[in-house]
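Task card 7
Instruction: Convert sequence to structure tokens.
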Amino acid sequence: MPLVIMGLAGGDARRQRQNRFRPIQRLHLALFIHAQHDGAVTTFVGAIPKKSSSRNGIVYAVSKEEFDATTEREKNYTPTEITSTVQILSGSYKPKDEVWIYVNKFEEGEHQKSLPTREFPIVQSYIDICLTGCLQIMNGFPDAGGFAGEFIESAEEWSKHWENDRVHPRRTRFTVPAAKDIDKLLQKHRPKLFAGIQLAPGRW
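Output:
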């Protein structure tokens, strides 16, 4: 997932990884189309600039070499420096070095073409990965109680083209330990869309 925010810093990386932040600036989440390495196609989360918008996430320290390697790996995205807009919400660490986020590159008109469709749906297995991470953050930080809900609410361009591709969709506890909590979150924050999720393959 390219929406990773990094602080270019020296030592004490472990302490910096333990700090949650919310950039109070021009970024928002949307759901975009990307091809998976195995040749399948689906929709993933990305970020694009937008005024008066905010995003929650995690800041962690990397070396210059790690930053360069990440930039090479995410070469389809634009590294964007957002240090002045970051607000730390957990812990005492304040970023003294540059903080970066990777945003989507879109030419004019490409944004609308990238949204979920029946050929490029949202898949539940990917949403499970995102929300499992959010739940882990909530469990790790006392003041992060609304982290997962904020992720769902601030992400835009959710769609009816949404498939439940879990390995055992009717017995999820065996393959997705957090499935019950994830489903409750989605039912609360996206009730209409959650009710319309179709077992893969979807037939819209």
